[in-house]
Write a structure and sequence with these properties.
Oligomer: single chain
Largest sheet: 4 strands, antiparallel
Strand order of the largest sheet: 1-2-3-4
Strand content: 25-35%
Order of helices and strands: EEEEH
Shape: globular
Structural class: alpha+beta
Bound molecules: zinc ion
Helix content: 10-25%
Length: about 50
Amino acid sequence: MILFKSCPRCSGDRVSESDAYGPYILCLVCGHMAYSESVNPVETARARKTG
Ligand SMILES: [Zn+2]
């Protein structure tokens, strides 16, 4: 899932991913990474269901 222009640092496009630590959002432009605390809980639950 791509979150357009959502980066707090550079306003770039970000993509939601997940790893062993849980879901996170990675900026494709500057590499800024944010863990689930800033992820929409609804989207997180949906991702876990499909994962
Ligand atoms: Zn960025």
